Amino acid sequence: MKISYPHQLELINASKIGIEHIDMTIEKLKAECPDMFHTESTLEERRFHHKPTSETPCRGFVADGES
User: Fold this and answer.
1) Does residue 65 share a domain with residue 44?
2) Rounded distance between C-alpha atoms, residue 63 and residue 40, angstroms
3) pLDDT digits (tens, 9 = 90+) for 26-66
4) Would you call 47 helix, strand, or coil by DSSP?
5) Residues 48 and 31 in one domain
6) Does pTM top 0.70 for this prediction?
């Protein structure tokens, strides 16, 4: 699900205040619109362009030539 414009503005405004506000806004959005966020099962189906720096589950990476 794509993030709506009003929610985008919330995150932009939170970013002007600081990381604590970004984290609070994300938690608020997760409660209001949980479908906007990936879960372990949806990440397993996702193919990234570059390999994430964390142990994020995924289907593969474009830049690494994996499928």
Assistant:
1) yes
2) 22
3) 999 999 988 888 887 888 888 888 887 788 888 888 875 54
4) strand
5) no
6) no
